[in-house]
Amino acid sequence: MTVKKTTGEKQQIDWGITIFPLIAILVLAGMLMLFPDSATQILGSLKGFLVNDLGFLYMIFGLGVLLISLYIAFSKYGNIKLGNLEKPRHSNFSWGAMIFTSTMAADILFYSLIEWGFYYNSHPFGIEALTAAQRQDYASMFPLFHWGPIAWGFYILPAAAYGYMMYVKKSHKQRMSEACRPIFGKKVDGPLGKVIDIFAIVGLLAATATTFSVATPLLSGAFCTLTGMEASPIVDICILAFIALVFTLAVLFGIKGISKLATVCIILFFLLLAIFFFFGPTRYIIESGITGLGGVANNFISMSTWMDPLRLSGDGNTGFPQDWTIFYWAYWISWSVATPFFIGKISEGRTIRQTIIGAYISGVSATFLSFIVFGNYGLYQQTHGIIDPAGILAAGGKPAEAILQIFGTLPWPKIGMIVLVLAMIAFYASTFDALTLVISSYSVKNIKSDEEPSKQLRIFWCIVFIVLPTALLFNESTLSLLQTLSICAALPIMIIIGLIIAGFIKDLRTRRKEVEKTTVEKVLIVSDEIVEE
């Protein structure tokens, strides 16, 4: 089967890479729906092994990615330009907005409202008896760490590698296997390349399933509160189907549509921020935000390397870093299959330094702003005894229930919920529109950097994206099960990304030698000409 390119040529679909991930997801979805207890037990065993025995790999990898990205950005490699444009294809605002809204913005909005509640009753660093001040500080500090520079590094370093592959090497394939070519050479054109790409796509589908399954109940709960309907899994699935319809329609507009949708997302995002900031405890939000930022700066190395060897902060099987830090690193790694490709694709005309540093500034600043305002608003309600979201979570309640309780403290809660629903739908549409753009490129055998996959192919992937989340909603999956999916999917992807980074560094060094050799040859030619004269 072939589909037309934007250039009038034809794109050949790689059926192996397209069909095998679909089969894997259908099998997993079927197991979760038909044998929920057995599937949950198997995944739980895998999580125990990966977290307890191999968790240190995620921690080392995270810190290493951050350090390597900063080294490349500030080295002479940072001057390399991605493409031949005189100026970047997208303005700084449009580029930064797309990076934030088209990555994990819907997740960021969700977790910034409630993540602090999971930490409020936890015991970071194995401290058993926390004071009220320590609870407050850790609850505002750890969300910033888990969504800060290390997390964004999982996107940004591969994004620079993919941008280099697309605009400097002029590759006609936009896949993780192609980014491994400097290491494996022509082997990526055979079965090895297929295996890499299949693992990548399955991992991404698992990560997006986690996103949908966590945040959809919040949208459903807000919708039911506004309309008076009774919440149920059927309502959740209808909401999921509507979101899928929205981002499927968004596919019709390509990257220009993503850019415009990103602007809408930013407007809604800042409107919701303004509601929480100006109609909430403004002074508390500012002071807690400053305290949280200071805490991350002071404890960054400790937080990046704390493994809790004695498991003093958990239930005896796993501790705080195993339940949260390792989960988040795995979560971001799983998303690194597609998001870095999108960042690399929209970075044409920028240097590697501008791409890395600019992406850190855009992603981290917007993320921190979200967690500081939304998170500390809820934390204020908790610490001042107005509501008890942390208690709801500690008792096994759903995060969506706790978040809606927080919205109930706003002066006009229904207005806040309306903006929340609109913002999350827009964020979902922007994020998954970008993902389908990238994942569809995996399904095409050859595609240039200035081309987009066919709309039919992208609509196919839009449908595939909601298969596993639907099964998880029917399964009424717990947060622990969703975390397990991400952690299991991330291990092979982490290995692949490590190979991509190694190949990127190898390419940069090869290019430097070639440039130096060319420079020497030019100098010798000029010297010979002078001697002859």
Automatic annotation (TrEMBL):
Which compartment or compartments is the protein found in? Cell membrane
Please indicate if the UniProt record lists Membrane as a keyword.
yes
Keyword terms, alphabetized: Cell membrane, Membrane, Transmembrane, Transmembrane helix, Transport
Q: What GO molecular-function term can you cite, just one?
A: transmembrane transporter activity
Transmembrane ranges, per UniProt, are 12-35, 55-74, 95-114, 150-168, 195-214, 234-254, 261-279, 326-344, 356-374, 415-439, 459-475, 481-505
Q: What is its main location?
A: membrane
Instruction: Quote a single Gene Ontology cellular component term.
Output: plasma membrane
Q: How does it sit in the membrane?
A: Multi-pass membrane protein
- InterPro entries, alphabetized: BCCT_transptr
Q: Which domain of life is it from?
A: Bacteria
Q: Report the sequence similarity comment from the record.
A: Belongs to the BCCT transporter (TC 2.A.15) family.
Q: Identify this protein by name.
A: BCCT family transporter
